[in-house]
What does this fold into?
Amino acid sequence: MPQPFAKADPATVFRLFDRTARTYDLLNDLLSLGLHRLWKRQAVALLQPRPGERIVDLCCGTADLALLLAERVRPRGGVIGVDGSAAALEQARQRAGERPWLPLEFIHGDVLALTLPPGAADGVMMAYGLRNLASAAAGLRAIRRLLRPHGRAVVLDFNRPSHPLWSQAQRSYLRRVVVPVARMLELEAEYTYLERSIATFATGPQQETLARQAGFAVARHHPVAGGLMGLLELHLATAGQS
It folds into this structure.
């Protein structure tokens, strides 16, 4: 029987995502009615990747975002996908292999212990990863370290809605839809953690504060889908700085 999700234990997180790798994309489509693809495209639009840039996609999973980003940095650019789940990266490499013209490479590793050099990226993307790290503050510092001067980043994740009705709707959805579907696929433990992880995750304003403490000049949290999701927009320099 799978062990309960342990937020502060990276090894446990990686094992849980190893178990979900083969059904992850299908479940995302079913459980979000395909809307997760819209949210990911909104994240890419906010990051504004340009041809020739180097982008690092942290917690890249099965490469949904890495593939989108790689299309936009061609030619001369490149995307590095990073994830701690070997099974997820296996799926990612298979998907990338179907589009060999895309400038993609993958690294198996912990976001908080990466060997990539400082200033390796023009931009950093992270989707549904910050909440699963041992420390959100450390995750934001890791993003800051990877960026070149004037670099920027976007973090997409679940959000804690401020309105009570939206908060209740989110809890009901997780308990009455997500967990029962996961139970049918014998993945209940992997998806039961969602409600707990969201409940302890930094709010939008708290994420902004943590980002500024990590060294970002600009940190803006944008609620998405009525506040059920959030996009954290980060820049190392304010407009007009040279």
Observations:
- The longest strand covers residues 147-158.
